[in-house]
Specification:
Blueprint lengths: L2 E13 L10 E16 L4 E6 L3 E9 L2 E4 L7 H16 L7 E7 L13 H16 L6 H16 L5 H8 L2 E5 L3 H10 L2 H5 L7 E5 L5 E7 L6 H14 L1 H24 L2 H22 L6 H12 L3 E4 L7 E7 L4 H10 L3 E2 L8
Parallel strand pairs: 3-6
Antiparallel strand pairs: 1-2, 2-6, 2-7, 3-4, 4-5, 7-8, 9-11, 9-12, 10-11
Helix pairs in contact: 1-2, 1-3, 2-3, 2-4, 3-4, 8-9
Length: 356
Amino acid sequence: MAKIITRAPGKLYLAGEYAVLDGCPAIVVALDRFVTVTITTSTTGGTIRSKGSYDNVVHWTRVGYEMVLDYRDDPLQYTLGAIRVAESYLFDKGIKPRYYNLTVTNGLASKYGDKYGLGSSAAVTVATIKALFAFNGCALTKDLLYKLAAISHMRVQKNGSGGDIAACVYTGYIAYTAFDKDWLQEEVNDKKICAVAEESWPKLNVVPLTAPDDMDLLIGWTGIPASTPKLVDENAKAKEAKEARYDQFLSGSRNVVEGIIEGFKEKSLAKIKAGINANRKLLLDLSAFTGIEIEIPLLKSLIEIADKYGAAAKSSGAGNGDCGIAIAANTIDIPQVYKEWEEAGIKPMSLKVYRK
């Protein structure tokens, strides 16, 4: 094949943030903005290029089964992590990957390089693995893609839940419960990648959801980038000191998210909105006892404006910036909501749910 082009969508969390890291369910949605990976044939060496607000190139070759970079610095860690996992799987299967030039184009950030909080690292990982399998003529199921991407992402980020990867792979709205991270770490340490990727993963659960016909998803960007790994680390430290309080948060989050999932199944917009409002209150309580500022002033403004028009709104993901979401009936005056968001310094995002 002369050229392979793949892509993976961005995502946002609707509910279940933070608690998803401790085995509780969450709801994640894939969105129609993408990371694109392009692979072209090479011969005795290759390049990995990242295109966006900057253009960076790493040259590489292969010594035996190992990819060897020309530079000690590794600015493309998620792409390289995905390559290593995908190629390990292919080598395990007796397939020798060909040389290639690979280019990543990140559409999940602004032209100035500001990240929207749409899960670019997960999308890069997923699109890269898809591209490598297609380039080498190998079949790839969604379940295998998810597991390879989750292994790769865990190696790089270490503290993620995998929900963003699940949204990229399965698309649309999904209910997600994370795999047992300790189990997976032990498996990866003891077994070949192909063996781990092809076995059943404890606790992992992904269920597609269909939104009610009268429901709209509104998204606003604060313009303030947040670091999810950093916030997750801060939360981990805080929950050790407030274990009993954190257990109450987990129990509350599980009940609320399960209620929202039922709302999706029953096509009840009222039930979904009630759950979104309840999840916001849980996150505010979490913020109060951990000291993490999840709902910054711009997110509070986003929520209050949406509430005026009967929508249910909250921060998305780790909070502290990035995006907020609002669940609304499609009969409300959405242009007016967007106008007031803009007046408050919030950028409405013209994103739609992506399903494939």
